[in-house]
């Protein structure tokens, strides 16, 4: 994986093979950030990445100057890798080891962007629970967005607060906003 833009543009990051991750492809990530670039000023963003895995999305936001980036994953090796990489690159990322659903129940922050990249084999109910918790707990700031990455085989367009989705190969980004 590589960082597409910002202070570390072009930097390649190789996650250890033992990590249980499926990093967002560069093509999909570039498409996502093209959309976000037209709607947000990165240096003013508070970002929460759920199911952070290798930290791929967190590095991209931090490289682009996000105000704060918090990465949540339940795998300790993923958290250690994010911490090590963010220190090496001097990126301000706060990695937290936690079950995502438990974290959302008690999340102490509000974010401009919440990005969730759960396993592609999640059930509709599991995907829906992410969106429900984000909106029930008021975790988005005004004009904030929840983005859930999922496979093209999952359909999230019938969930409350769904706005739009964008497809990149096998990956789909579903955007949710307060309406």
Write the layout of secondary structure elements.
Blueprint: H1 26-37, E1 46-50, H2 56-63, E2 68-73, H3 76-88, E3 93-97, H4 100-106, E4 111-116, H5 124-136, E5 140-151, E6 162-168, E7 171-176
Parallel strand pairs: 1-2, 1-4, 2-3, 4-5
Antiparallel strand pairs: 5-7, 6-7
CATH topology value: Rossmann fold
Mean pLDDT: 94
Relative helix content: 25-40%
Order of helices and strands: HEHEHEHEHEEE
Strand content: 25-35%
Instruction: Kindly report how far apart the N and C termini lie.
Output: 34 Å
Largest beta sheet: strand ordering: 3-2-1-4-5-7-6
Helical stretch tally: 5
Give a count of the beta strands, DSSP E runs of length 2 or more.
7
Using only CA atoms, what is the Rg?
Answer: 15 Å
Show unreliable segments.
none
Q: What CATH architecture do you see?
A: 3-Layer(aba) Sandwich
Task: Characterize the structure shown.
The chain is an alpha/beta fold. It has a single domain (42-176), classed as Vaccinia Virus protein VP39 (Rossmann fold). It is 30% helix and 26% strand. The protein is built from 5 helices and 7 strands; from the N terminus they run H-E-H-E-H-E-H-E-H-E-E-E. The chain has helices at residues 26-37, 56-63, 76-88, 100-106, 124-136; strands at residues 46-50, 68-73, 93-97, 111-116, 140-151, 162-168, 171-176. It has a 7-stranded mixed β-sheet, sandwiched between helices. The mean pLDDT is 94.
